[in-house]
Amino acid sequence: KAGVTQTPRYLIKTRGQQVTLSCSPISGHRSVSWYQQTPGQGLQFLFEYFSETQRNKGNFPGRFSGRQFSNSRSEMNVSTLELGDSALYLCASSLVGNYGYTFGSGTRLTVV
Amino acid sequence: QQPVQSPQAVILREGEDAVINCSSSKALYSVHWYRQKHGEAPVFLMILLKGGEQKGHDKISASFNEKKQQSSLYLTASQLSYSGTYFCGTEHRAFCAGNNRKLIWGLGTSLAVNP
């Protein structure tokens, strides 16, 4: 079965711009989480969505937002980009309950 | 709140064993283990739940010590394919009501297996 699909794979944006990243989970996976990965900070939790509702949010500024659609696809948006937002953004989906996550290949965002 | 992984890096020769530890300062509900190879997405290895049994597949297994709030990943007779960065992710009671999920990750343990 198809894995978690993230688009685009790479993005280069200028400071102050905004960006939207997309994630299509594995069919049947209703929980979608987003993570930011950087060499210094490791994996940082952004938010988790289930049934179009944000269930949990990490310690990121309000410039980071997301949403989930009725088909479980999710998007995250970062407004007013800063240089420090450069990172690999990973989306992960899972079944409901105590299951592991399946990660997408990520979107590599570079802010210049 | 971030779990502490040790060691930070390990270099092995093929066939050697390794243990990676993940310790939390808060009570644990579950511990996830993942492996990430350079330029790739993290891949799920296993999840251990509070009160659950030790898990494993092939030559990779893990344990969960609730009293010590610690999990250990055991890599036996390592293979070249085991190389990568191993992450533990922890879930704590407060975040496990209903479907709420929030993994807090360790900084990873880099494992290199050489021929």
Overview of the molecule:
The complex is a heterodimer of chains A (112) and B (115). By secondary structure, chain A is mostly beta strands. In chain A, strands 2, 4, 5, 6, 9, 10 and 11 form a seven-stranded mixed sheet that branches. The mean pLDDT of chain B is 88. Chain B is built from no helices and eleven strands. Chain B starts with a strand and ends with a strand. In chain B, strands 2, 4, 5, 9, 10 and 11 form a six-stranded mixed sheet that branches. In chain B, strands 1-3-8-7-6 form a five-stranded antiparallel sheet, with no helix packed on it. Chain B is mainly beta and 115 residues long. At the A-B interface, strand 4, strand 5 and strand 10 of A face strand 4, strand 5 and strand 10 of B.
How many helices of chain B in DSSP terms? 0
Number of strands of chain A: 11
| Helix segment tally of chain A | 0
Greatest contact between two chains? A-B, 25 and 27 residues
Q: Which segments of chain A are poorly predicted (pLDDT under 50) over 5 or more consecutive residues?
A: none
* Secondary-structure class of chain A: mainly beta
Mean pLDDT of chain A: 94
Q: What is the arithmetic mean of pLDDT of chain B?
A: 88
Broad shape of chain B = globular
Unreliably modeled segments of chain B: none
SS-derived structural category of chain B: mainly beta
Topology:
The complex is a heterodimer of chains A (112) and B (115).
Chain A: E1 5-7, E2 10-13, E3 19-24, E4 31-38, E5 42-50, E6 53-57, E7 64-68, E8 74-78, E9 87-94, E10 102-103, E11 107-111
Parallel strand pairs in A: 2-11
Antiparallel strand pairs in A: 1-3, 3-8, 4-5, 4-9, 5-6, 7-8, 9-10, 9-11
Chain B: E1 4-6, E2 9-13, E3 18-23, E4 30-36, E5 43-49, E6 55-57, E7 60-65, E8 70-75, E9 84-91, E10 104-105, E11 109-114
Parallel strand pairs in B: 2-11
Antiparallel strand pairs in B: 1-3, 3-8, 4-5, 4-9, 6-7, 7-8, 9-10, 9-11
Question: Any descriptors?
Answer:
heterodimer; A: 112 residues; mainly beta; 7-stranded mixed beta sheet; 4-stranded antiparallel beta sheet; 11 strands; 0% helix; 54% strand; globular; B: 115 residues; 6-stranded mixed beta sheet; 5-stranded antiparallel beta sheet
